[in-house]
Specification:
- It comes from Pandoraea thiooxydans.
- InterPro entries: Homeodomain-like_sf (IPR009057), HTH_TetR (IPR001647), Tet_transcr_reg_TetR-rel_C_sf (IPR036271), TetR_C (IPR011075).
- Keywords: DNA-binding, Transcription, Transcription regulation.
- The chain is mostly helical.
- It has a single domain, classed as Tetracycline Repressor, domain 2.
- It is about 70% helix and about 0% strand.
- Helix 1 packs antiparallel against helix 2.
- The two termini are about 35 Å apart.
- The C terminus is likely disordered.
Length: about 210
Amino acid sequence: MARPREFDEDAVLEATIQCFWRFGYEGTSVKDLTEKTGLTAASLYNAYGDKRGLFRAALDRYAGESVGNRIRRCEALAPLQAITTFFGDILHRSLNDRQHKGCMLVNSALEVAPHDAEFQKIIAGVLARVESFFHERITAGQADGTITQSLPADVLARHLLGVLMGVRVLARVRPEKALLEGVIAPALALLGRADGNASQPLAGSDRLAKHH
């Protein structure tokens, strides 16, 4: 039977997320983690095994709370509104990220996934969930006539995933409103129906801002 945690695990994982998110996996030392969490190295190792295990727990928590919660909120909206609101939230987060941390998941995809099969699988699974969200909303929008049928849903979903990744990487080095909107807006316009019912880019960002 597993021993109960002798610390506030939510607080420890939140501090851990902030550490890995800002400095990356390689740039974060055990000393950084002990200072941020307030735990000794022995306590961290007893609870999570090693730095790698702690990173895995932090990445899982980030994916569930940041990516997962955003998808669940947007899934409740009408198809086209769901997608524009999703990107509105991404834009808000990117422009208000004072430390230019970007997205921990995307950062990890660039830093860790290329040479680590386990983390590549974990990150690919989360990105597949995002792509599936896009696909589901596009399919629903094509069915109700609010999203164009000029391209297959799977093609549009993959395109939106690529736009999302690009925006989050750009935001780390050039968090400029005009630049990021210039990437997002054409992608959303592409979803509009051929009869002129184009999407309203970035709708809903203010409403979701409190969740960032």
